[in-house]
Amino acid sequence: MGDWGWEYDPDARHVIGDTPNLAFVARVEERADELVRAAAALYLDGTAYQGPSPGVREEVIPAGMFQYLTVVRQQRLYIVQVTAWPL
Would you say residue 20 lies in a domain? Predict the structure, then answer.
């Protein structure tokens, strides 16, 4: 997988807030891990990539959704918004 990784942007507290549903947050992070593995397989040498980055995308998962930005040349997936649906 190389140096690919994910992080909250600007930080977890800002993106997640004080959501009480920790199982949902775990699902977001699990899905982020899967997306990072997929990006690493798709962009084998991300730092040398010359095309456009995919832009902001969203994932709907049980109990909510999240938006993320993939920046290929930085080999990073940034989670920018997490929305948990009411329990």
Answer: yes
CA distances from 55 to 3, 36, 38, 70 (A): 20, 14, 15, 6
The model's pLDDT over 30-68, given as tens digits with 9 standing for 90+, comes to: 999 999 999 999 998 888 899 888 989 999 999 999 999
The model carries a pTM of 0.89
In a domain, 56, yes or no: no
Angstrom distance (rounded) from CA 80 to CA 65: 11
| Cα–Cα distance for residue pair 81/8, rounded to 1 Å | 8
Query: At residue 33, what are phi and psi to the nearest 5 degrees?
Result: -60, -45
